[in-house]
């Protein structure tokens, strides 16, 4: 919500995040198990945890993936592997500071 500073009136509203995250979904059973998905991740990544995740795509669709968090050369990453076909959907670099965590 954007509010005008001079009179307090509402001048804008953005609800894409809310609408995307508050929708009924029917998730199918993944074609790959977690071990098969992990085999698609580089052996150089020291995986610390993993699990299923539903991630958004630029097309406003969602993809069921296995999420692998890990470390490579002192940097933390999250790798998303498509749970149906084993394709790498996304890689995020985690930049951590005293102000929080930024993903790029």
From TrEMBL:
Instruction: Write the protein's name.
Output: Germination protein YpeB
Q: Which organism is it from?
A: Candidatus Ornithomonoglobus intestinigallinarum
Under the heading InterPro entries, the entry gives: YpeB_PepSY1-2 (IPR014239)
Q: Which domain of life is it from?
A: Bacteria
Q: For the Sporulation protein YpeB PepSY1 and PepSY2 domain, which residue ranges apply?
A: 1-27
One GO-annotated biological process of the protein: spore germination
Q: Name one Pfam family in it.
A: YPEB_PepSY1-2
